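Minutes, project huddle
Topic: does the predicted pose make sense with zinc ion bound?
PN asked that the exact inputs be recorded in the minutes so nobody has to dig through chat later. Recorded below.
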Amino acid sequence: MRKYKNGGQLETVVCNCCGKKIIVSEGVAREGVISINHSWDFFSEKDGEIHHFDLCENCYDTITMEFKLPVEIEEQLEYL
Ligand SMILES: [Zn+2]
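Predicted holo structure (tokens), as shared on screen:
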């Protein structure tokens, strides 16, 4: 869950799963957090709905550990 200031700067991020408040400084989350923004389409039962939520890194790890198939991970290219 994210809250923005009037100017559009990020103010608050809270993990939807455990309620943990993520540290935000100068509009940037300073801890690991994943944001899901998904537009459900015609082939779902949520057609026309856009769902938003955030997960802290601990909840992400807990949830993804339950996966039958592991998360696919690749190294991010660094641009210097
Ligand atoms: Zn959490």
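Observations noted during the meeting:
- Strands lie at 2-4, 10-14, 21-22, 24-25, 28-29, 33-39, 50-56.
- The mean pLDDT is 96.
No decisions taken; revisit at the next huddle.
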